[in-house]
Structure formats: C-alpha cells, structure tokens
Amino acid sequence: MEYNTQKTQLHMPEYGRIIQQLVERCKELPTKEERSEMAMAIIDFMGQRNPQLRDEENYKHKLWDHLFILAEYDLDVESPYPFPTREQLAEKPKKMEYPKLQGDFKFYGKSILQLIDKAIELETGDEKEALIEVIANNMKKSYNVYNKEHVTDDVIFRHLKELSENRLDLTGIDSLEKSKIYYTNNNSRNNKNSNSNNNSNKNQTNKRRHNNNNHKNRK
C-alpha cells in the first residue's frame, strides 16, 4: 500500500492529486506543442473541478497562475498570460491605511461621518431634517451595540454636535421624537415673522378698501 506521505507533495490541495499528476505528466512531454496542448486541457479540467472560480474576474488568468504553481514554476508552454515568479507570489500586499476617525467616536464608523458631511451641505428643509434624524438614530444603535449599554438621546446629541463641529445641534431638545418639531420651529421663525408682516399689510389694505367703499356709498 502506498501512503499519501510517500507521494509527491500537493502544491495546491484544493485541485486534488489527479490534476497534480496531470501537470507532472505534462512537464515530461517532449515537445512544447504537446505540452501546450495538454496544458490547455488541464486548464479546462481545473475550471470544471472549481466552477466557483468562474464568478471571479479574470478567472482564466488565475487558472494559468495556479497551473504554473502546480508545476513548481517550471513549465515551458505557450500561455496567453505571463507566468508569475516566486517572488511576485511571495510578495506581501501593501498595508491598507484605515480612515482616522474622531478619537473616542470610532464605533460610529466612517459612514456616519459621511452622512454628517452630507447633512451639513444640504439646505434647510424636510430632506435635511429627515437625514439628521436618520443619523441620530443610527448613532444610537452603533453606540448601544459597541458599548453594550443603553444611551440617552442627550448623549447622542452632544456627540453629533461635536462630530459636526457645532453645525448640527440638537442639544436644545429632550429626545429624538422631538427633533423634527425642533427643526421645524427653528426654521419657521423667520417665516412666521414675514407672514405676520404680510398679514398686517393685508389688513391695512382691506381697511382702506372698506373706507373707500363707505365713502362712495355716502355719496
């Protein structure tokens, strides 16, 4: 009986020993034309054995890279892609630079900061009010998940004010339920003043018309 420990080491176990043996047989063929023809057949077989690779971008290129790895980087065939070197495959990817979030508020995530910037850019109105409410609610959920404790709305409002550099301020209200009323009242103050002025002007105009009509009737 022949044990696996006595057989050739599998360079990529996910392809199995059959494909490994086919690659070794391909390397032994005398001419480049024969090796290239067999390499193409092996690539097709590898694709059938691993159909999930077809969902990936440039999966054919990956299969040829895997074939070269299975051949221990020693395979003289015609390939539609350049073969990688040991050094290229061993090279470590560059370290990703993670976004730097505001000190103690990392648990809110980058998406919250992006939404805050979007809310600041919006003009005052229903859309801005709705977005601010969404931001505050999501901040509350993130806080509760990260800190595993209940947080009051006033804490969220203070954090929102600090993250927005005082440009989104809900600290004047008690809860999220009152946020829309708060913004509506603040945004409508000027409108109320202008409306009162318009109403007074209209009243004065109506009085003048009434007086003019009375004067005509007397005549």
From TrEMBL:
Keywords: Transferase. Residues 184-219 are annotated as: Disordered. One of its GO terms (molecular function) is transferase activity. Residues 185-204 have a biased composition (Low complexity). The keyword Amino-acid biosynthesis does not apply. Residues 205-219 have a biased composition (Basic residues). Coiled coil: none annotated. The keyword Repeat does not apply. InterPro entries: DUF4290 (IPR025632). This is Methionyl-tRNA formyltransferase.
